[in-house]
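re: ur msg from earlier - yeah i can do the flavin-adenine dinucleotide complex, just paste it... oh wait u already did. ok heres what im feeding in:
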Amino acid sequence: MPPRRHVTLALIAIVAFIAFSFLLSSGGQQRAAFDTSIVPSDSVLHGVATAPKLENATVKAELGNAAWKLLHTMMAKFPDQPTEEDSTSLKSFVYLFARLYPCGECARHFQLLLEKYPPQVRTRSSAATWACHVHNEVNTRLEKELFDCSKIGDFYDCGCGGDDDEKAVATTKPKVGSGSFTPLKLEKDGGLTRGG
Ligand SMILES: Cc1cc2nc3c(=O)[nH]c(=O)nc-3n(C[C@H](O)[C@H](O)[C@H](O)COP(=O)(O)OP(=O)(O)OC[C@H]3O[C@@H](n4cnc5c(N)ncnc54)[C@H](O)[C@@H]3O)c2cc1C
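and the outut:
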């Protein structure tokens, strides 16, 4: 075979190889873009808290207030009979919340608390009871008044009553929801130290 033909064949082979590699990599990127299965690993869930110390006491208190409201309302809205995936989602959320909470020292304390009291996620009631309990643990450390967790179902409105009067915090009995959403009854997955 003449040397020129060799060179031409080699060039064609290189171009074909580059084109093939490009197709493979762009296909991979497309797959990645549509891949919604983000399953956080243990190192992601339990890694070091990300935020620095929060010096401003007013900001810390406002943040805490809002964060507890979010957490307790989330529990009040959690399904009565969650799927395995619902429970895993809530558990992951709590660990990520603890890791990313924007008050570093609060986050570090909360992570330690989660080691002692892992999130309870088998039912709405056990999740709500667990959240009340860990909030009380924080209250104790901060020398704040404790909350009576037997009243948690009356206090955080799930907003599922179906009328327009959705107060953020209910002072009366929670409204009975339509469909399968029933009022919160207190129970625990097991011991509070057991993971859900
Ligand atoms: C995860 C986390 C960790 C924190 N760690 C720290 C920390 O280390 N140091 C620090 O200075 N601050 C910390 N905070 C903030 C702190 O907990 C308070 O939010 C903040 O001091 C404001 O307190 P507060 O008196 O307004 O009531 P909050 O504790 O914010 O509570 C808000 C409202 O929730 C209700 N409530 C109280 N206890 C319970 C309960 N057990 N269950 C349900 N509802 C309840 C009451 O109506 C109360 O008024 C943390 C907050 C969070 C979310």
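cool cool. Residues 60-61, 64-65, 67-68, 72, 101, 105-106, 109-110, 132, 135-136, 138-139, 142, 144, 147, 152 surround flavin-adenine dinucleotide (CB under 6 Å). ping me if u need the other ligands too
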